[in-house]
Design a protein that fits this description.
The complex is a heterodimer of chains A (404) and B (202). Chain A is α+β, with helices and mostly antiparallel strands and 404 residues long. Chain A contains 11 helices and 17 strands. Classes of the chains: A alpha+beta (404), B alpha+beta (202).
């Protein structure tokens, strides 16, 4: 079957008509939010207390930014900080992972986590060190306490393995050391039901890993490209809600549709970062003291081509201006390497090392099948459903030759 | 004899083959160099390097338009990344059971066979065997820069022959080429032009 393009066309027309209205509405919201953000009269201490009150009494799942105070004084939420002018002399460590989830339709059932790590000394002209760690999940390893391993469980193991690999490499690295991972620093995963206990165990392990990285004095950062979060926007919504109505906060979204980068894009110049915010989320209390998660926005784009990323950092980095400046300088330098599509070069390389191609997956399948056959064991067959999906597309008759 | 490996076989046919290698090995093969593939005991294939090319990929295309590329990024792309680097070789003969032949090899080399640079002694032995029969393969390869390939080959072969006491080899080789190309005036003229350059630099 093909898509009914006539039906879709009507819907696209309607989409276009509402887009104009939406655009105007977003523009007005952005102007209001920007005015609030840059208003020096915004009472940040009161706002922080209000947000914490909401989180404790009305919405424990509240996810938003919180203003940060240094020495009892709150950092202005509408400030921007230029890129440091020095060349970052440091070691940069980037780790990324990919996974092959078990496929019950395949002839052999296995899973895999592949980690790519790259370590670069910015003071050296030598090629960085690249390492790959591949772990196969087979037989009993495909089961957890709650049953057959799920994609999200495998992703959780991958995230933990990435951080574990960071520690292994950080122990023998040259310092100062900056570690980069792709995505948020917060550990993601299902927290409810049977998967909840898995997640809680993983979270404990993760907190332990973060603590070790703190002890090693590593400048830890998670890089979120093209972030779609509304953390600061939600903070402004909290500022907007009247005290008497805060019990209805779960249904109060006057700035819905606006995302944080809409706010920061107009006033963060090339290379500039925003002020640092604390991150409020459901399990934030698990990340205590020096491990508390923070973030800032960074414009890694060029003149007239702003491109914003969210950088998540733990409190020990957020509170240390030397670390913060070093990280800022490293990220701008790394992104500049990639030219017109800025993204940290080493994170791209770590991803390149980690990614498992379809051909490689096929090769692993064949290797397992061959091993089993060599030992006289039967190998399963691909499901008929998958077999049907693998059938070739339609071909044309052309003088007795089949066209590809 | 120093054996210099230039890489391993990627794909092959009777008339030629393609070798893949690391950038670190790239200083060994040069355009026109004679190479050999030792397939099994008493069976060796000879060829001439007629093209060395480096493919790009998405990342390299993006990096080339960045303002500055750090030394360590260049090194990373050259030494760590799987950027394809291919050397194309024209088959020109073989040696089986100790007998050299300027015919096409009966079987091509196989995937991942090692390919080596021929040393000067081997080069002299092959080019002195028979009566320049291997020139046929070069002159037939219309899609290749025939004059340049011949000139590069003659230059390298001449250096080897001079070293091994046969400075007149190039005259015999040139005479043979003139005879073979007597009916192809444009190619002959281009070739003579190239040979003049060989004489100047040799």
């Amino acid at each position: 079957m093909v898509v009914d393009l006539l039906q879709v066309r009507e819907q696209i027309k309607a989409l276009g008509e509402s887009a104009v209205v939406r655009h105007q509405r977003l523009k007005e919201m952005r102007e209001l939010a920007l005015m609030m953000l840059r208003n020096p009269a915004l009472e940040l201490e009161r706002l922080q207390k209000k947000a914490l009150l909401i989180m404790h009494n009305f919405d424990p799942n509240l996810r938003c930014a919180l203003p940060v105070s240094v020495g009892g004084e709150f950092l202005s939420v509408g400030s921007s900080y230029p890129s440091p002018k020095f060349f970052p002399n440091a070691t940069i460590l980037a780790v990324d992972g990919s996974q092959i989830p078990p496929d019950r339709h395949a002839e052999v059932i296995f899973g895999m986590i592949n980690l790519g790590a790259i370590e670069l000394d910015t003071t050296s002209a030598e090629a960085p060190n690249v390492s790959i760690n591949s772990r196969l999940f087979y037989d009993e390893e495909l089961y957890t306490e709650s049953g057959f391993i799920t994609d999200s469980r495998l992703a959780l193991i991958r995230d933990l393995s990435e951080r574990q690999r960071l520690i292994e490499l950080a122990v023998n690295a040259k310092y100062p050391l900056i570690s980069l991972t792709d995505g948020p620093l917060e550990l993601w995963g299902a927290r409810e039901g049977d998967l909840g206990s898995d997640f809680n165990k993983s979270l404990e392990l993760y907190i332990d890993i973060l603590r070790k990285l703190f002890t090693l004095n590593v400048v830890v950062a998670g890089y979120v490209d093209k972030p779609g979060a509304s953390l600061v926007v939600r903070l402004l919504e909290i500022a907007l809600i009247e005290e008497g109505k805060i019990k209805d906060i779960k249904n109060y979204y006057p700035l819905r549709g606006l995302v944080d980068i809409d706010l920061f894009r107009p006033f963060l110049g090339p290379g500039e970062r925003s002020t640092v915010f604390a991150l409020q989320f459901k399990t934030a209390s698990q990340y205590r003291d020096e491990l508390a998660l923070h973030f800032f926005y960074l414009n890694v784009g060029g003149i007239n081509q702003p491109w914003l990323a969210r950088i998540e950092i733990p409190a020990w980095v957020a509170k240390d201006n030397v670390m913060l400046d070093l990280l800022h300088a490293v990220l701008i330098h790394q992104c500049n390497i990639m030219g017109p599509r800025p993204y940290p070069y080493l994170l791209h390389r770590a991803h390149e090392a980690a990614v498992v191609s379809i051909q490689e997956k096929e090769q692993i399948t064949q290797m397992i099948s061959m091993e089993l056959r060599n030992r006289g064991l039967a190998v399963g067959k691909i499901s008929h459903k998958q077999s049907g999906k693998n059938l070739g597309g339609r071909t044309r008759y052309n003088g007795g030759k089949l066209l590809p | 004899m120093t054996i210099i490996s230039i890489g391993r076989l990627l794909r092959a046919g009777n008339a030629g083959f393609v070798v893949g290698c690391r950038v670190t090995q790239l200083d060994a093969p040069i355009f026109g160099a004679m190479v050999q593939a030792d397939l099994e005991q008493d069976y060796r294939i000879y060829g001439l390097v007629y093209d060395i090319h480096i493919d790009d990929d998405g990342l390299v295309r993006q990096l080339v338009i960045a303002e500055d590329v750090d030394e360590n990024v260049i090194a990373d792309n050259r030494f760590n990344r799987n950027v394809p680097l291919e050397i194309s070789i024209l088959a020109i003969g073989y040696c089986q059971n100790g007998r050299l032949s300027h015919l096409l090899p009966p079987r091509p080399p196989l995937s991942l066979d090692s390919i080596y640079l021929c040393d000067q002694e081997e080069l002299c032995k092959f080019t002195n065997a028979g009566h320049f029969g291997y020139f046929r393969h070069i002159l037939r390869a219309e899609n290749l820069p025939i004059e340049e390939l011949l000139a590069a080959h003659l230059q390298q072969a001449q250096l080897a022959h001079v070293r091994y006491g046969d400075p007149t080899w190039i005259e015999r080789a040139s005479q043979e080429l003139i005879t073979l190309l007597r009916d192809n005036y444009p190619l002959l003229m281009n070739l003579l032009g190239s040979l003049r350059d060989v004489m100047i630099t040799a």
